[in-house]
Structure formats: structure tokens, C-alpha cells
Amino acid sequence: MVTQTSIYETELPIRAAVLEGHAALLEHWASPGTWWSASERLAIVNEVRTAWDADQLPPWVGPSTVDGLVADDHVLPAAVVDIIWRI
């Protein structure tokens, strides 16, 4: 069950096979793994997308230290969010 992340929406024509592949991968991410729960795995995916779209931070600034960049009630620990942004 996908709850937090969705397939990208676009006006561009995308083949059905590509959309089906993305949906299958998203379902895989939305299931619990050996190290992370389903909600944590989706939070990781969402955080990767957020980091990818955000302005680059200086290497000495962790995203968890910037007011408003990471929610106080984030599912993931601040250290994990910082690592995601660095990778």
C-alpha cells in the first residue's frame, strides 16, 4: 500500500510499461525491509526526492540544522536525513 509517495504526474507521454515498472518499484519500497519499516523506507524515498530538488547546502551545514528544512516530527532520525542529503 502506497501512502506517502506517488508516481510522478506529468503531461508528457510515458509508455504504460514504464509507469507499470515505476509502480512496481514503488510498491517494493513501500513494504518493510530487513532494516527499515515500510514508513521509514517511504520516508527515505521522499527525503531523497526532497534533497535532489533542493538548493545545495554547504558541506558544513546539515539539513537537520536548518530551520524548516526537516520537520521536527520526521519519521527518520536527523542523522539519517543528513546522510541522505550527503549521498
Topology:
Elements: H1 16-29, H2 38-53, H3 78-86
Give a description of the structure:
It is a single chain. This protein has 87 residues and is mainly alpha-helical. 45% of the residues lie in helices and 0% in strands. The protein is built from three helices and no strands. It is globular and about 40 Å long. The relative contact order is 0.14. Mean pLDDT is 85; it is low at 1-5.
Q: What percentage of the residues does DSSP assign to strands (E)?
A: under 5%
Order of helices and strands: HHH
Mean pLDDT: 85
| Low-pLDDT runs | 1-5
**Helix content, binned percent:** 40-55%
Q: How widely separated are the two ends? A: 27 Å
> Judging from the principal axes of the Cα atoms, what is the shape?
globular
**The number of domains:** 1
Short overview:
The chain is mostly helical. It is built from three helices and no strands. It has one domain (16-86).
Which terms would index this structure?
87 residues; globular; disordered N terminus; mainly alpha; 0% strand
